[in-house]
Description:
The protein is an alpha+beta fold. The protein has helices at 3-14, 30-44, 99-111, 138-142, 144-157, 170-181, 189-195, 200-215, 255-264, 279-290, 300-331, 338-364, and strands spanning 18-19, 56-63, 67-75, 81-89, 118-122, 125-129, 134-135, 221-224, 233-236, 241-244, 251-254.
Amino acid sequence: MEVAEQKASQGYASLNILSSPLTIDPSLPLPHIKNHIVELCKDMFKDWSKLDDSCFLVERISGGITNLLLKVSVKEENCVDVSIAIRLFELNTDSIIDRQRELQATKYISAAGFGAKWLGVFGNGMVHSFIIANTLTPSDMREPKQAAKIAKQLQRFHQVEIPGSKEPQLWNEIRKFFEQASVLEFDDIKKQKIYETISFAKVHDEIVELKEVTDRLNSPVVYAHNDLLSGNVMINNEQDKVYLIDYEYASYNYRGYDIGNHFAEYAGFDCDYTFYPNRNEQYHFFRHYLQPERPNEVAREDLETLYVEANAYALASHIFWALWALIQAKVSPIDFDYLGYFFLRYKEYKGQKDKYLLLARSYIAGCKINGNIHSDQTHLK
Length: 381
């Protein structure tokens, strides 16, 4: 065993975290994945090592673009059913996801009571206790009752303290993605021709301009989820509990970015931005985020400040995921139109840039936000 692996194993042992060197390809059909999952369970949980394979039931819960969440139900020898959750990371994601940072964060986030109890780690995934809750859809997130619950839980999440640097990571990540995305070469001739239509000099200029404006907003730095799409929100309505799961991209970051990125996810993977929340819908979210116990007492100037932050940083979200998609188009084995996703996100960025950078610059200059800048009834197009 390599020295690094030995240290990692020792570290997990000190936390009572089980570990296994096994890896499982999440792109395999579920029946094939099941065999590997059973092998993994027997390797990690010694009490299950002699159980017959028929004692294991593997079900798909949900799947993002870069990971797959499975439920494993196990009938133990005493006839008691036990369930765990296993999350499989896509292979070849080291260039876009810092797995060590994720593992470090998971330890503290789990201890703070968010998500599930962390049970173990393996070659390309994690094992957690099973949460009895439903994964949301984009339309679920848009419902006012659910939006309020998510806002309250996100406010709590932003209070988490993680040891280490508190430097916001947004622009470091965008810089890293840009460096990788701008020098790709595709074996597929059609993909290469599409890729060559992208002006990376222009994308670079857009990044510089956007950073210059958003830096002047002085958005508070918080511990941010950074990927709060519908598949990463689970709700148990009977117990009135909200779980924010999957911390692949979690880091210290700007408050406005985490919220603006969440709003962009109202559009879903289809990128239907007619579902992006209007001002009234955003204010509803902000009230429950800023004052969870007294949402109707939030000052209007605080709503306006967060409105400017969230929508300016939503532009950064489009840039971030657009560049991410180009890298994925090169390395991912998953059948998804990543190149097309780049153009959808970048098109939305360009379509909303003038509106929200004007709003940000006006706010910075001390201009009053009024109906000439945005309308209560306006949805993004």
